[in-house]
């Protein structure tokens, strides 16, 4: 009984402490420009501007807005003049933008007149593996399959189609680095012989380097 009495509060303290340390670490990294996620805002109207401002005002979230896509109603009403960030295209160009720009998340902030584009845009993002966020500021801006969260005091429908497990990805990266380091140390003599053979046969360089495309179009 004494063990159980001590176990449960100890678990609670350990869980809270661990999560707090991880949160502090991510806040510091993101405030310095690391571990950023890039957001495309679908909508170029005053509500889209307010949402984009809220994102970038809280730098600890690690979110940066790459630009807006305008809906037909935004163009017709001249609402695009209300946004201060670049309008990089229209809704019908979203697939091209996702292929040519690094975008991790898509925030759909359409006006009520463009509501018909909500589900097609969300499903396209599903096919492209992007995470979709839909601020619940307009009635009817809801599609099935998501979970409602709180974002800075505003209800947010989140459709996590892509890799939204930051901790798991960090753990995988850590394991990759550790195993690669061990492998390099163990195989160093063999690699040394190979390096000398390459220099003798073909000259330098020994290492092959090439730019590749990674997650959501990031070059590495």
Can I get a quick summary?
The protein is an alpha/beta fold and 220 residues long. The chain has helices spanning 2-31, 46-57, 72-77, 94-100, 118-128, 166-202, and strands spanning 37-42, 63-70, 87-90, 105-108, 131-135, 147-151, 154-160.
Structure description:
This protein is of the alpha/beta class and 220 residues long. The chain is built from 6 helices and 7 strands; from the N terminus they run H-E-H-E-H-E-H-E-H-E-E-E-H. The protein has helices at residues 2-31, 46-57, 72-77, 94-100, 118-128, 166-202, and strands spanning 37-42, 63-70, 87-90, 105-108, 131-135, 147-151, 154-160. A 7-stranded mixed β-sheet has the order 3-2-1-4-5-7-6, sandwiched between helices. The longest helix is centred in the last third of the chain and has 37 residues, at 166-202. The termini are far apart. The model has no long low-confidence stretch (mean pLDDT 87).
In which range does the helix fraction lie?
40-55%
SSE string, helix = H, strand = E? HEHEHEHEHEEEH
Low-confidence stretches: none
| Backbone CA Rg | 23 Å
Mean pLDDT over the residues: 87
Instruction: Give a count of the beta strands, DSSP E runs of length 2 or more.
Output: 7
Q: Which strand-content bin applies to the residues?
A: 15-25%
Overall 3D geometry?
flat
Span between termini: 55 Å
